[in-house]
């Protein structure tokens, strides 16, 4: 092997090594998602370069982007200036078999938007923070439309944050969702993400009158939520399985199941959470099956309104039935330590 080929081989090996801890397969409704598979990673350091690579990709067969850019969040001296700026998004539309993976130590000030007939997509090891764009900008958004519904999506080992500051003039949209999926997107696994200092964490279903929500299925496991306000997730219709997640310092409400949605909430760890499991703010309630959750100190409740209900008795309101997949539970009392040690960008993957 000549020196040029050797150098190229070493560079590829190092690129793969920097994220090799994430070779495990997704568990849950997103099982079978392979993204770009073992295609040679294309290194990109900017949003423009990443978008150009996706735009020039045929749309199937495999594409792996290794994002190496670094954004200095310290340069944002006024967080309340961010919502007034144009949103910045990496758009994956009507294309499939794609992995977007952050190199260890990378960081971004743009979101990833997976839309329409996009299938088999992985977003992994990205650090995304303090996004511009307000309500027009999710950190990671998955959204169907009349042309198709994204499916087979794996969102894994990312770190997402913004600010708990409510900016004058922004209403409730100083920042939008950390990880949102809506308008019929389905078969999604959200695992080992660390979301902190964020207001509206996860929207699962666009609006109360959108019946495409009924087909949505999502698994959330081993995620870390700290210093957040609400939507863990906000679920309308559909089915969710939430297991082995860690919830701490939740200001307004946690898991909010609405409009006939059903959630299996299993072996999670809650502490310092207001309204950890609730149904509120819609005309129709949702339902849950609760299994073996750890309920620590600092749990509080407030009135869910005349059309709402809280899980103050920690009892099941509707059986979930079989999930249709196999998974291994961490005992609830051990979830906090495991999740803190392993969730977020740059951390080791453990099933």
UniProtKB/TrEMBL annotation:
Residues 39-276 form the Pectate lyase domain. Belongs to the polysaccharide lyase 1 family. Keywords: Carbohydrate metabolism, Lyase, Polysaccharide degradation, Secreted, Signal. One of its GO terms (molecular function) is lyase activity. It is found in: Secreted. Residues 1-23 form the signal peptide. It comes from Ideonella lacteola. SUPFAM superfamilies: Pectin lyase-like (SSF51126). PANTHER family: PECTATE LYASE 18-RELATED, PECTATE LYASE 21-RELATED. The keyword Chaperone does not apply. This is Polysaccharide lyase family 1 protein.
